[in-house]
């Protein structure tokens, strides 16, 4: 008998490729730079893990195989840059692919400037032009800055031409750096020659003349264009405005050293309601609280040299509350509307301090207002006012200096203050005909108005 034995062997089925991944999918290279990437085929147990690597723009990048599944892609020198795609495809499963996007950019290698050293008088300017190399650099954007922007400022004029303005005496460096390659720079050495007073000299001008104003020896100047306070210093011309009120407001808003040009006692004239007034500066930042003013800067307080020609009551209701008074309504209505447009547009509303008959202080938003007792006299006689506080209650420099400075001509020759007499609800302090303090019932129609305002 013959026995036949059949043996059955075993075999492994093929494991297909399910995907291809790269260690990076995007890279940006300067011309001449390179980067490596690694190919991974999934699953790790795939029977055939071979793949192909191809680049669509061999004129832009080169591809070199490294160890194992690592490749190096390099951006060629001398190109204009662009985008190349590296594609990796499984040989056994062409649907399994992965791509690497290579952005090639031409770097900035140098920046030059036509004027590496400049010098000029303050209030003048000069143009400089930067040149970026190479001409085919991908990103030729410049970041141009000044090391001392208070001495020399710089601003784009057009293209790569910039304007350097000499602001005050000193030295500065203008630096133009490539935005894409920040280590590549060009510089301009700037020397500004001071042709007018320095900021310190302007401060000294203000300090010295403020002391004279407080002592009563300062002679006020008329605020107008063409006034030269120190040699080369014509601050009112710098504002570019045409009327005195606008000039004052512009200086207040600028908040720069020119703010020291205006001294308590300086003045300008306006006509309102048929009467011509000489409005005199009585102080700077009388009610200023940072962030509280409408412009966030400064303001100047002005008072007139004469009273409004018509007598009127402080309050027809007999109340000595300034915020609801007839006088306030008149000042911010009839009188304000009679002012020239340039003046109205320059007036700002600030919280001026008001202390009621109980001694409680508040800030009343006002555009036009009379002085308080403390401001007029530098002390209290009938009111419960005190200096300082919030808003501040400061003595007017010019008004509080003497009785003679407080005297005004006009209806009945005495005028209301915005204060309340302490301890009662119906009496109001005022400045008597000889400049001294007194008080009277708010309902009296014999008082006059001294309408003050803040410019800023």
Short précis:
This protein has helices spanning 199-215, 235-238, 244-254, 326-338, 341-346, 373-377, 403-406; strands at residues 19-22, 26-30, 34-42, 51-55, 61-65, 70-75, 82-90, 97-105, 110-113, 117-121, 125-133, 142-146, 152-158, 161-166, 170-178, 185-193, 267-272, 275-284, 300-304, 350-355, 361-366, 368-369, 415-416, 427-431, 437-441, 452-455.
Features:
456 residues, Immunoglobulin-like, 5-stranded antiparallel sheet, 4-stranded antiparallel sheet, 26 strands, disordered N terminus, Invasin/intimin_cell_adhesion
Structure description:
The protein has 456 residues and is mostly beta strands. The protein has three domains: 19-105, Immunoglobulin-like (Sandwich); 110-193, Immunoglobulin-like (Sandwich), CATH 2.60.40; 203-456, no CATH class. The protein has helices at residues 199-215, 235-238, 244-254, 326-338, 341-346, 373-377, 403-406; strands spanning 19-22, 26-30, 34-42, 51-55, 61-65, 70-75, 82-90, 97-105, 110-113, 117-121, 125-133, 142-146, 152-158, 161-166, 170-178, 185-193, 267-272, 275-284, 300-304, 350-355, 361-366, 368-369, 415-416, 427-431, 437-441, 452-455. The longest helix has 17 residues, at 199-215. It is elongated, with a radius of gyration of 40 Å. The termini are far apart. Residues 16-100, 107-188 form the BIG2 domain. This is Ig-like domain-containing protein.
């Amino acid at each position: 008998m013959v026995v036949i034995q059949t043996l059955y062997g075993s075999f492994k089925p093929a494991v297909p490729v399910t995907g291809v991944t790269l260690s990076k999918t995007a890279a940006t290279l300067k011309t001449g730079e390179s980067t490596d990437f690694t190919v991974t085929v999934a699953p790790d147990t795939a029977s055939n893990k071979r793949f192909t690597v191809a680049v669509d723009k061999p004129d832009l990048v080169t591809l070199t195989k490294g160890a194992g599944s690592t490749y190096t892609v390099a951006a060629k020198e001398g190109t204009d840059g662009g985008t190349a795609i590296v594609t990796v495809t499984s040989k056994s499963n062409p649907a399994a692919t992965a791509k690497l996007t290579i952005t090639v950019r031409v770097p900035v290698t140098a920046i030059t400037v036509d004027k590496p050293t400049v010098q000029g008088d303050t209030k003048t300017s000069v143009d400089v032009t930067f040149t970026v190399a190479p001409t085919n650099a991908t990103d030729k954007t410049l970041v141009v800055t000044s090391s001392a922007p208070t001495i020399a400022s710089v601003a784009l004029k057009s293209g790569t031409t910039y304007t350097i303005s000499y602001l005050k005496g000193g030295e500065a460096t203008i630096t133009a750096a490539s935005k894409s390659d920040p280590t590549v720079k060009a510089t301009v050495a700037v020397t500004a020659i001071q042709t007018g007073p320095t900021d310190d000299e302007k401060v000294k001008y203000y300090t010295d003349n403020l002391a004279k104003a407080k002592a009563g020896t300062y002679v006020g100047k008329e605020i107008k264009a063409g006034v030269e306070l120190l040699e080369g210093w014509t601050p009112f011309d710098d504002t570019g405005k045409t009327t005195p009120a606008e000039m004052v407001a512009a200086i207040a808003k600028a908040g720069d050293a020119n703010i020291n040009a205006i001294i308590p006692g300086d003045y300008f004239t306006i006509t309102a309601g048929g009467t011509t007034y000489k409005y005199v500066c009585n102080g700077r930042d009388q009610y200023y609280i940072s962030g509280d003013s409408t412009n966030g800067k400064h303001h100047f307080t002005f008072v007139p040299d004469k009273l409004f020609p018509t007598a009127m009551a402080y309050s027809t209701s007999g109340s000595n509350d300034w915020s609801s008074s007839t006088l306030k309504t008149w000042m911010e209505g009839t009188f304000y509307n009679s002012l020239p447009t340039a003046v109205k547009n320059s007036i700002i509303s600030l919280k001026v301090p008001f202390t009621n008959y109980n001694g409680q202080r508040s800030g009343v938003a006002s555009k036009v207002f009379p002085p308080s007792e403390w401001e007029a006299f530098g002390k209290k006689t009938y009111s419960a006012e005190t200096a300082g506080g919030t808003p501040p209650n400061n003595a007017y420099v010019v008004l509080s200096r003497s009785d003679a400075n407080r005297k005004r001509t006009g209806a009945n020759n005495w005028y209301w203050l915005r204060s309340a007499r302490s301890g009662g609800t119906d009496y109001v302090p005022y400045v008597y005909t000889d400049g001294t303090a007194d008080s009277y019932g708010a309902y009296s129609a014999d008082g006059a108005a001294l309408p003050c305002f803040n410019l800023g």
